[in-house]
Amino acid sequence: MTLQGTCDPRFAQVAEEFEANLATRGEVGASVCVIVGGEVVVDLWGGQAAPGVPWQRDTIGHVWSCTKGATALCAHILAGRGELDLDAPVVRYWPEYGAKGKEPTLVRHLLAHRAGLPAFHEPLPPGAFYDWKLMADRLADEDPFWAPGAVHGYHALTFGYLVGEVVRRVSGRSLGTFFREEVAEPLGLEFWLGLPEEHEGRVAPTIPADPPEVPPTFSIRAFTDPTSIPALLLANEGGYMALGESDSRAAHAAEYGAIGGITNARSLAGLYRPLSLGGGELVSREQLQIMALTESAGTDTVLAVPTRFSLGFMKAADNRYLPGLDGEGALLSATAFGHAGMGGSVGFCDPPAGLAFGYTMNKQGAGLGINPRGQALVDATYRALGHRQAGGGIWYLSAD
After folding, report:
1. Confidence of residue 390 (pLDDT cuts 50, 70, 90)
2. Is 194 left (phi over 0), alpha (psi -120 to 50) or beta?
3. Locate the Beta-lactamase-related domain: which residues (predicted)?
């Protein structure tokens, strides 16, 4: 497969793994970017964006839950400015949210997947996820599935509205507008929470993952217990997860802060570049330390596998030993944080290593984290930086 772009010779193994992804691991079209010490050392793309259409330098795509990192960053920017207190009750900023016993919910509970609102009890109307006010009102009036703060469970589809509504209430701007004005435009990123129509022709359509040989526990629960959180999450989402809907113009235009982001690897890594340098123009070093600290860890109430989250970001996790998740997880260093997207895209930073990383693709892989294609690129990057992978899958800087 012919690769396009640039690669510093020190990171040649990243290019080799990227080429192997396209040649032997089922990759269709993808991009990868590695930034070290603020300098781009890998910026590669290749394959097809659509049948007969080569992946170009400016091709963009749907990065699913990588979006959560962008949304969380907006909240931390406000927190760093003293405009948002992460330890304050949500009702300080969103008074209506206190209904149905949710008064004790703290802002940090929203960010750490501890709010107890990963799904809805009652059916949503078609197209609900394109109606911000409807979604915010429904969440404010929803009964929590567990006492706020008691446990953690992945808020796959609701995270963006929960955190985004607080951002909107505090800043007076919609989440997509705040992100564009405070992050994307100042950093020169091609990253949108609400894609302008003029860029629609650049989007590589999503290719769904092949069914796994052994379904994960989440999927088994979703299809065998209609009262379970996984079942309610997947079956009651207003039609967004229907085949092809996420590639619609309505989906791309929506300011969907959980899974709606559109970007490429260059801008996904660019999002984390200032954080890899100590916060840069976005947040202080003190706020960066808060962003990196693990807030939730252990068996996830929703996903039924071990997960680790800081305030809004994924941390390293190793689920490779679980049925249906062979090669799964997010094997980063202990100091890294970011977010993976459904199918395997990932963006993260590792401040002590000065590293910012982005990987996007159109062909999804099965599972709940980074699949072997993205993990191979992450592993090659850490090896090039002189790290070693210790027991448990976490990367550490080698003593020698």
Report:
1. low
2. left
3. 18-366
Taking alpha carbons only, the member of 30, 32, 111, 22 closest to residue 356 is 32
Tokens of 263: 């970007």
Tell me the catalytic residues.
Answer: 65
For the ranges 15-19, 221-225, 262-266, the lowest mean pLDDT is seen at: 221-225
The pLDDT tens digits of the residues spanning 55-113 come to: 999 999 999 999 999 999 999 999 999 999 999 999 999 999 999 999 999 999 999 99
State the pTM of this model: 0.96
Residue closest to 279 by CA, chosen among 43, 58, 77:
77
Burial class of residue 122 in the structure, from the number of CB atoms within 10 Å of its CB (0-12 exposed, 13-18 middle, 19+ buried): exposed
State which amino acid sits at residue 268.
L
Q: To the nearest 10°, report the CA torsion of 240, 242, 244, 246.
A: 20
User: Is residue 29 helix, strand or coil?
Assistant: strand
Report the SS3 class of residue 382: helix
Residue 16 has pLDDT above 90, yes or no: yes
Integer Cα distance of 344 and 27 in angstroms: 11
Q: Distance between CA atoms of 339 and 68, rounded to whole angstroms?
A: 7
Residues 6+ apart with CB under 8 A from 74: 163, 164, 167, 175, 178, 179, 182, 183
**What residues have CB less than 8 Å from 196, skipping those under 6 apart?**
none
Under 8 Å between Cβ of 324 and 137: no
Domains of the chain in sequence order: 3-71+181-397 (3.40.710.10)
How far does Cα 301 stand from its chain's mean position? 19
- Measured between alpha carbons, how far is 276 from 263 in angstroms, rounded to an integer? 19
What's the rounded mean pLDDT across residues 240-258?
95
**CA 88 – CA 77 distance, rounded (Å):** 16
| Cβ partners under 8 Å of residue 342, min gap 6 | 64, 65, 259, 364
Measured from the Cβ of residue 127, the count of other Cβ atoms closer than 10 Å reads 15
Helix (H, G, I), strand (E, B) or coil at 31: strand
The neighbouring-strand residues paired with 378 are none
